[in-house]
Protein 1
Amino acid sequence: MSWDERQRAMLAEMGYRLPVALDPTPEPEAAEPEPIVVAAPPPPVMRVAVPAPAAVMAPPAMTQAAPAQAADFAGLDLPALRDAVAACRGCGLCEQRRHAVFGQGALQQAQWLVVTDPPDESEDASGDSQPGDAGRLLDRMLQAAGQRRAGDDATAFVTPLVKCRPPRGRAPQPAELEACDAVLARQVALLQPRVVLAMGLQAARRLTGTTEPLGRLRGRVHQWRGLPVVVTFAPGYLLRSGADKAGAWDDLRLALSLLRAS
Ligand code: SF4
């Protein structure tokens, strides 16, 4: 594999130094990357004991949230699906969202589908997938792998596992994941990606169907909906843990090799 000056600059920005065998102008050997920091599992679900209702007292008046409505996304094209997601009430996560985060990238067929963890506060506020510094790092990673999520010629599509932010950043509950699977399934059907990149612990566990630590899910090829899946770190995590950028680049190279083999 040969690298042009633009890719070298991007890799350097990611903190990755090309191995001597791949770099015709080698630099002094890079320091060993620090051991992989395994992301902590999501916090346990709090269970609150509910007292039995008094037999003779009327129940207190409560403000009822609108019930979740099962959504049918079959047959929608990408713009219509985006509109449907913006108005979706398929699960309780719609109650507190500011914006549903549909995702961004290829307008038709995508080479890579990048599935990230559920929206954080900045995504919920903006409606954009991976805004800010994490998004800029993600864009540099994609560009180093020959992918891009912006422009009419975008080759990748970046979207969160569920489109609405769980309150206080908690992990999505099983019913919420199940409800939003229909959106992801329609995105896959429309975009027909050749490789899926799962970025972050929650995305990785959902797409691989396991509860294993991220470190054990990286470095191998999983299957999801008949597609090859590669697991790597979340962009936000990589901002805080630069030592793992080299490992993330190894994951991207694995995804790249699958794309070339497909
Ligand atoms: S998380 Fe998904 S299923 Fe739930 S309301 Fe948002 S878009 Fe609909």
Note: The longest helix spans residues 174-191.
Protein 2
Amino acid sequence: MARLIFPNPRPRFRLKNHARFTAVLLVLLLVVTAVVVALGKVRENGDSEAASIVVTPFVPPPTPEPTPPPIEIPEGKSLEKVIIVLDAGHGGNDPGTISPYEDGFYEKEVTLDIALKVRDYLTEAGIPVIMTRETDTRLADTQKEDLLRRAQLANDKKATLFVSIHVNAYDLKYPGARQVKGMEIFYYNKGKQMMFEDFDSYRFAEIMANAIKAHNGIQYRGAIKNDLSVLRNTKMPAVLVETAYITNQEDHARLKSAEFRTKTAIGIAEGIKEALETLQAFEYEGELYVFKELDAE
Ligand SMILES: [Zn+2]
């Protein structure tokens, strides 16, 4: 008599009653749910191979960018966007000072070159710049009108700061004129009503002088009060940087050198940045702002 190698299979489940059947179904449901949830977790963890088979993962709706709180404007002040006006001295048929050592070397070319470099540094730093000129041109045919338009541009654009860039010359009819060298910074006090609290053109001149000296190492002859058209007619803190003397041979070599121009431009840009920090300029939604005195002219 042959022996059964395998005993008769017995059914695993006997459907004796409904309760038992329901219990089994429930267990099955639980198992399926557990698998679905587990696969969902796997998908969330980045195992796309396993997840792509079964479950559509839960994708949370994009969270909106949090809106920053509105700017609180202090009493007596107005909110203004930061704008720097850079003025490259002279241009066009006004060459500015002329080299006594080399034909065709003019102030207007140096001032524009430095100003364009300053513009690039500031733009790179996210500081908005407007130039009075970007090419070899002047703004009007007469010097008086040309200077007035430069100041007017800064006023119309509600500039925060105004920087005019020039090259100095000493009158060569005076003995020892060729020995005079170095940088001077001109400023003009615009009276009692200041655009910013505790910040006038003299303070701006000091900041600029220190920043430029630190970068190009030039001898500094000091800040000089000077009733110049662009300084008198601009409403914001303004300085005029006389970078170096074209009439001095050492300074002449500096003005010719790309390195000196670059370092001077970096110094001017750093001075402007430091002045903006002093004015507590701040960024709001990608734009730079300052608070100005409301009653400033
Ligand atoms: Zn000049």
Note: The pocket of zinc ion is lined by residues 89-90, 96, 107, 166 (CB under 6 Å).
